[in-house]
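Sample 3 of the quickstart, ligand zinc ion:
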Amino acid sequence: MCNLCAAREFVILSHRDRYGYPVQAHACRHCGLVFLNPRMTADAYGRFYDGIYRPLVSAFHGRLIDARTIQAEQHDYAEERAEFIRPFITNSARQTMLDIGGSTGVVAAHFAKEFGLQGTLIDPAPLEVEQAQRLGLETITGLVEQHDFATRRFDVVIICQTVDHLLDVAGTLARVRQLLSDNGVLFIDIVDFRAAFLRNWSVEAAIKIDHPYYLTERTMMAYLRSSGFEVLRSDYAADHLHVSYVCRPAAGDVDAMPTAASVEEMLREVRFVQNAPYRT
Ligand SMILES: [Zn+2]
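Result:
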C-alpha cells in the first residue's frame, strides 16, 4: 500500500540500484510516490548500517567515508542550513530542539549553540549516538516512532538528510506533529528524486538501497500538508540536489495529493531519461 495516498496501483521504474543490488523502485500511479518495494526490514537495515553501508559508499565514491570523515561535511551543511532556518527560529520563547536521525550530532550541536536551544538527538546507530553524547546533547538510541516521549514537546524539530532513509514517512511525520509545540518549527530536507535522475541521466543511478523513499517537490509537499504542516519557505540547496522546507503546524489538508497530470508528467520524464540519449 502506498505510504502517502494508500493506493495499490504501482509501476515498476527500475530493477537494480546504483550499487548493483537487485532492488525494485516502484512509483504509485495515483500520487507519484517512488519507493523500494519490497524493502528490507528494520533489523536487516540495522545490520546493513552496522557493517556494510560506510565501506560500500566509500568504495562507490573512491574515498574513505566513515563516522569521522562525515563530520567535516556535516559541519558545512549545519552552517548553511542554520542560515536558512534563522529567520524562523530567532524567538526567545523557543527552548527545546529534537533532531531525528541526527547521526553524530554535528548539526544539532551547531543549531543548539547558534540558537540557544537545549538539544536532544534520537538515532538508531549506537556508535554515532556515542559521538553525539560527547557534544553535550541529550541522546536517545532508537526510532522516533517507537520511543515513548510521554508528554514532552519540542519547539524545534529537525530531520536532516534523513527522511529518505525512514521506513515509514507518514508515521514519522504524524509523530512529529504530536511532538511539536503549538508555535513550533519543523525543518526537513529531501534528496529531490527528479534532480537525482536528471543529473545522472539514469534512474538506476538515483536509486540506492539505503533510501527506501525517493521524494520530489510534489510528493514532499503532499506529505507535509496532509500530515498537518504549512510550508513557510522552501530552498533549493547550493548542490542543486537537496530541497529544504521550514514548516509550522497547521490543520491537515485532505486535498493535498499530487494531481493525476503531475504523476503522468513524472512518469513521462522517467521514460524520457531512460530512452533518450544524452549528449553534452
Ligand atoms: Zn500513492
